[in-house]
Design brief:
Layout (H helix, E strand, L loop, with lengths): L1 H21 L3 E5 L3 H19 L2 E5 L4 H10 L8 E5 H10 L18 H5 L6 E13 L21 E4 L5 H12 L9 H11 L2 E5 L2 H9 L5 E5 H9 L4 E4 L7 E7 L7 H12 L1 H11 L12 H5 L5 H5 L6 H18 L6
Parallel strand pairs: 1-2, 1-3, 5-6
Antiparallel strand pairs: 3-9, 4-7, 4-8, 4-9
Amino acid sequence: MGTVKCHIAYLALASVILGGELHAETLVVNSYGGPYEAIIRKTILEPFEAETGIDVVYDAVGSASQDYAKIKATRGRPGFDVAIMTASQSLQGCQDGVLEKLDEKAIPNLARLAPKLAATAGPCGAVHEVQYMSLLYRKDKIPAPDSWSVLATPELDGRIVLPTFQNIMALYLVEIFSVMNGGDLVDNLDPGFRAMSAVAKQSIGFEQSSAILESYIKDGTVWAMPFWNGRAQLLVDSGLPVEYVRPKEGTIPLVATLNIPAEAEHKESARKFIDFFLEKSNQEAWVQSYKVGSARTDLDIPNDVRARQITSEADLSSLLLPDLSLIAARLSKWADQWERDVVAQAN
């Protein structure tokens, strides 16, 4: 009888162990909160779980720069398997050796990305969306602007808000104002910093989070501000009296990427997730749901959506394209100059 009990106990233990082995793997995806989280859950995460049986834990903590800082500080072991960042962090992470290089054999849909767009992220990043910095404004408060210079006009004194330097929009503004005032995108930004010091005097403050930035324009405190066009389109679609434009001086794209930390625990599942996100039907769903552009040029999307997004290499060539590797090398210096020349001038 004792032998039988031992045998039963062994089977029970084996069942527990086997059950654990068969239990779905957990994939930790680090990204953003707010409207982004709701859309990615419905459009990407839930379909991925249903198709693969892999459980996704969504970690909506930190900005792209903060997430990368965590990856670097932990030498590629930040506690999450996929990071949603930008091409700047992808390039820096490859250089620092803390991000995994991605392979078309393991992630076949990488081969479907437009080469020029894909190259902006380097070998460690998979471009899953493209946005651009637009000028968002309250159409019930001011006429439609066509220039970034509107941010420095007396009519908007105390009616704008600016990003902190931890939000890449801050640097993009400096670069655009630099070009507008005789400088360039990376080698001579002093004209941009000088121009932004005047803009800062108009600002009610500085915020890092897109969710907080948009709250000011929602309640009418702010009448104009820089904002990613995808998020701007969501506000337009919500019925708010807002609109956005791509000013005549041009703008800079935000190339968003999927990345795998070098010491991630579940790399195989992470590769599956990236390939799933880049699949044609899923890119179509993402573009239409989050109102962004794509590095895939074979998407079937409505013309009205395509007209306001970046969906081809020709679209990208019409934008201002700073050298992201130089940006990464000089970011710390510029951050200090932003605090000294811009933030110090704010009211």
